[in-house]
Specification:
Radius of gyration: 25 Å
Strand order of the largest sheet: 18-19-20-21-35-31-30-24
Largest sheet: 8 strands, antiparallel
Helix content: under 10%
Shape: globular
Distance between the termini: 72 Å
Strand content: 35-45%
Oligomer: single chain
Length: about 625
């Protein structure tokens, strides 16, 4: 017989449990202990009261049960008493809250700690096979690593502990001043869980355990030959996955913890469009790390770790935590490996912003240096069509790119310099001017701290802003236009996408070394942009564009947060005019100035003289 639920209440910083058939007055947290499962709702709590909560859990002898990361251990999931794991989780969250002052600032970052970059000798790589347009060199540097284990925080795999927002406003204890108190408004940021069912090819039965000795890391190898022989087309079946949803007034972000912990969707509510590509079928492609034998073009944003360019963990199950607060929500995706390199991704969304922050952290818990790479890979198809069109443009603010791979014989060879954006009369920033696949890095490394993809047909795109002192690599990739790689390699509906990669090294041929006990952390800011027909500059606050017309100059502004200030137009460095600006988050506007000659630039300056946004017309 199921026992009565226990209600977790808090008065000040003291937590208590009450068992009752109905919710007691003032109870703000629900605990169902029928199967010794604690389901915590952090809500508006600020984690400084973690010791009291921990003591309360221990007094009740409650357990936490979760699912382990299947990629890092074969040990089965276990229920653990509320001592080592609760301590680990609460201390981690307490440290996070303390470091961020109770919230997470979108532009906050920590620079490299005990990390050094190294560059592999430049030489001619093997010619890429047609089936692997963005393949990386198969020969990896051998750092002669051992598999010794450092002192671990816990001795068992880290399970998934889900801290979720509830569907109704959270009530806190208060003194009633009237018979009918007015309920508080709903949270500005909400987090909840749901399920999603995706048609899936039977790839999982053909994944085998493998190990990369050169970088001391386990992974799953796909047996493509056995898979092809199994007639997979006839065995497509629906598979249901957990979906985590975080949203505010402007953005809706969804996550797939089961499939690499990826951000699956970024829906820009003012237009209703998903800026990420969303594959309608889960189908193994022939790409990814060559030794792995395959990769899933699921869509969204994935974490290419610890090898380029899609990494090893794109299909593994990641642990996750959610931190719902009224004015800031966060989803923490973690690998939780205490024997090899460990990675964690925190995605944060403010209640009054149309941008989201992605904070990456890599730690080396081992007793030896480890060489690795880390790349964020965003699969993009901005606009309503979930595919790319001839109006799609890559915006990289450099004059040269380093070519990674291509099927176009008219372009330079891999490692060679590619003038950007115009090469022999072809404006390669527009996908419509491509023949076959093409991928290239900013040369010699990332320079101005932003990159974007913009679809001019739908007047919509996606921007990433990053710190160039840490994020030294920026790359684009596309399947081609007049003679593209056939979509049936990765999907069944003929759709296509393009990619933006941001990474710690300038190219896929470079590696970074993390010393024992070392860590590296950085934050990228991503946001949709619309209504300004492209852009010439971007920062965490928004994007700016400049257009000449016959008798005027127009400046388009897009706001990722509320913008207020004075917009100036410069010609050859001379201030030619200004206008006042106020824009709500997620909105855009055009500002018209008289036509002037010369090189054009613009600055948006706030009341204290600080430059909020700037851009230079190329």
């Amino acid at each position: 017989m199921k026992s009565n639920p226990k209600y977790l209440s808090r008065t000040g910083k003291d937590w208590t449990f009450d068992k009752a058939e109905t919710e007691p007055p003032g109870a703000s947290r629900l605990v169902d202990d029928s199967e010794e499962m604690v389901h915590l709702v952090v809500g508006f709590a600020r984690l400084q009261d973690a010791p009291s909560l921990l003591s309360c859990l221990q007094d009740e002898k409650l357990s936490l049960t979760g699912q382990p990361d299947c990629q890092k251990s074969n040990k089965e999931s276990v229920g653990m008493k509320a001592s080592p794991y609760v301590i680990f989780v609460l201390l981690m969250l307490s440290a996070l809250a303390s470091a961020c002052g109770g919230s997470i600032t979108p532009t906050q970052r920590t620079a490299t700690v005990t990390a050094t970059a190294s560059h592999a000798p430049v030489g001619q790589p093997p010619a890429p096979a047609f089936a692997s347009p963005t393949a990386v060199p198969t020969a990896m540097p051998a750092p002669s690593l051992t598999a010794t284990r450092a002192a671990a925080l816990i001795s068992t795999p880290i399970p998934t502990l889900t801290l979720t927002a509830i569907s109704t406003p959270i009530r806190t204890p208060s003194v009633k001043t009237s018979p009918s108190p007015v309920p508080p408004p709903p949270p500005l940021v909400s987090i909840r869980e749901n399920r999603i069912t995706l048609k899936t090819y039977p790839y999982s039965k053909f994944m085998k355990n493998a190990y990369n000795k050169e970088i001391d890391f386990p992974y799953q190898r796909f047996d493509r030959q056995a898979y092809d022989a199994s007639n997979p087309q006839s065995r497509i079946a629906p598979v249901t996955h957990k979906l985590v949803i975080m949203e505010n007034e402007y953005l809706k972000l969804t996550f797939l913890p089961d499939l690499g912990g990826r951000i699956y969707q970024c829906i820009f509510k003012p237009t209703g469009n998903n800026e990420f590509y969303q594959n309608k079928v889960i189908k193994p492609s022939p790409w990814g790390p060559p030794e792995q034998g395959g990769w899933l073009a699921v869509g969204g944003m994935e974490w290419g770790f610890p090898v380029p360019e899609h990494g090893y963990l794109w299909g593994s199950s990641w642990g996750y935590l959610t931190l719902p607060q009224e004015d800031m929500g966060s989803v923490i995706i973690f690998n939780g490996d205490t024997e090899h390199l460990d990675s964690r991704v925190t995605v944060s969304l403010g209640g009054d912003k149309s941008r989201f922050a992605v904070t990456h952290r890599v730690e080396n818990p081992t007793q030896h240096p480890v060489r690795f790479q880390y790349w964020s890979d965003a699969m993009l198809a901005p606009g309503p069509a979930n595919t790319v069109g001839d109006g799609l443009q890559f915006i990289f603010p450099v004059n040269e790119m380093t070519l990674h791979s291509t099927g176009d014989a008219e372009l330079p060879k891999p490692h060679g310099a590619l003038p950007w954006p115009v090469y022999k009369g072809r404006d390669l920033s527009f996908l419509a001017n491509w023949h076959q696949w093409l991928g290239a890095f900013e040369r010699p490394q990332s320079q101005k701290g932003f990159a974007a993809v913009y679809d001019h047909a739908s007047d919509e795109g996606m921007v990433v802003v990053f710190p160039t002192d840490v994020v030294r690599g920026t790359k684009f990739f596309g399947f081609g236009w007049s003679n593209p790689i056939p979509p049936e390699n990765y999907t069944d509906d003929g759709s296509a996408y393009v990619e933006i990669h941001t990474g710690l090294t300038p190219t896929f041929w470079d590696w970074i070394t993390l010393q024992p006990g070392g860590s590296i952390e950085w934050t990228e800011t991503w946001f949709p942009v619309a209504g300004i027909d492209g852009l010439v500059g971007a920062d965490t606050d928004g994007a700016v564009n400049i257009r000449r017309t016959g008798d005027s100059v127009k400046i388009g502004l897009f706001a990722a947060r509320a913008l207020s200030g004075t917009l100036h137009l410069y010609a050859d460095g001379k201030d030619t005019g200004h206008q006042d600006v106020f824009l709500p988050p997620g909105s855009h506007n055009w500002y018209t100035f008289p036509a002037v000659e010369g090189a054009l630039s613009t600055r948006l300056v706030d009341s204290s003289g600080h430059v909020i946004l700037s851009g230079d017309m190329r």
